[in-house]
# Entry
Amino acid sequence: MKKVLILNSSARKHNSKSRKLTEVFTEHWKNIHNDLINYRDLGESHVPHINENWIAAAFKPEALRSLQEIEALKTSDEYITELREADVIVIGAPMYNWSIPSTLKAYIDQVLRVNETWKLNPENMQNPYIGLLQNKTVFLLLSRGAQGYEKGEYNEHMNFQSNYLKTVFNIIGITNIHTVTINGESFDPEKYQQSIHDSHQMIKTLIEKELN
Ligand SMILES: Cc1cc2nc3c(=O)[nH]c(=O)nc-3n(C[C@H](O)[C@H](O)[C@H](O)COP(=O)(O)O)c2cc1C
# Structure
């Protein structure tokens, strides 16, 4: 029995392509597995930004935290517990201004926490991060208006979406990452329809591989 956590981050509720990808994921996953699926909608809910109290609290031992500091970490604790419990984490994310929605960034700031999801190895300056979340799989289900963002393509240098998300999940210890992307909403309609079709197919193939 695997636990799945689905995080949506599009600000659009209607006609969102990344939400459609997480829906395709859910339907196909449920067809094969009767697992527990948890949802968190970052696009709709308020994700608090980290603040002065949060930072002071996160970087000191638990026993030394004031009541105010403990309170400041409450949302972070809740998100991290949910992440720890999940075997499979599915992120639906549009590209906004060559990066990710600010709600998803605020979420990442809440869950990238020293001694909780990563720790520092001062002996290795080149790669000082040790990820503390293990044996998890991430599905990045992404949508973009333009195209050419993949490795070696003309917009690769402007891709702060998938490259960033992969880096962040690697740092917290998750290296089994599948990425499915819809490209080109704003351009060639025929290619775009093909991209949607291919992405739905790819999700199904990846789920089958993951569950075998
Ligand atoms: C505020 C905003 C910023 C966007 N910025 C980019 C961008 O930098 N690059 C790009 O390729 N598409 C960009 N797009 C297009 C979206 O990535 C595309 O419409 C995507 O399908 C949105 O995801 P959704 O359908 O799940 O809402 C932007 C869209 C919006 C609304």
